[in-house]
Design goal:
With about 100 residues, the chain is mainly alpha-helical. Helix content is about 60%, strand content about 5%. The chain is built from four helices and two strands, in the order H-E-E-H-H-H.
């Protein structure tokens, strides 16, 4: 029988969820881009200002799409490119 809702989960299912290892997002917030309370992208945005930050994000989106077939993780690189394009969109909405 296929479980179709949370109510179908057994106590053993819930225990497995509680012990599951959560991998850090290598797209949304890679751990190696954090220094204390400041994430690298926020420091870069602050240092560059709006126009240069948009250019920086566009260049990174291009970089990830340009080489996505060569690194062995094309889906991850595609997601990274989209992440940078979302940053462009967010910045454009601010100004």
């Amino acid at each position: 029988m296929t479980k179709t809702s949370l109510n179908d989960a057994t106590p053993d299912d819930w225990d497995k969820l509680g012990t599951a290892i959560v991998e850090p997002s290598m797209v949304e917030s890679p751990p190696h881009y954090n220094q204390g309370d400041v994430e690298a992208i926020d420091a870069i945005r602050s240092a560059l200002g709006p126009s240069s930050f948009i250019d920086y994000c566009r260049a990174n989106a291009l970089k990830y799409t340009w080489r996505m077939q060569d690194k062995g993780k094309p889906l991850e690189d595609c997601r990274k490119a989209l992440w940078y394009l979302e940053k462009v969109q967010e910045e454009l909405q601010r100004v």
